[in-house]
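Course assignment 3, question 2. Fill in each field.
Student: A.L.
Task: Predict the tertiary structure for the chain below.
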Amino acid sequence: MDKIQEYQRKLASLECKEINIPGFTIYLHEIDTRPNSNFAIPSSPKIPNVRESLELLRRIFESNKRKPRIEFLVEYAKSLIKELPLNNFLK
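Answer field:
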C-alpha cells in the first residue's frame, strides 16, 4: 500500500503545489478549480489529532477557493473511514 500511496503523491506533485500539514499532504492546482484536480492524501495510515488536521485541511482548501477533498486507499488509512463522517466529510 505504501508504494501505491507514494506513486499517487509523486503523480500529483507534477501538476500541483504541495502543502504539508500534520497528517496530510494537500495538492492544489494553480488554475484548475475542479475537485478532481485538488485534493489531500494522508501522510500515514494513522493520523494523530485527526480532527485538528481535518479542520486545518478544510481551512486551507477554503482559503484557496477549493472544495475540500481527500483521496486515499481504504486499505492504507482505514481509520479515516470512521473519522471523515464524524468531521463533516463525506466518504
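Instructor remarks: Residues 2-86 form one domain. The chain has a mean pLDDT of 87.
Grade: pending
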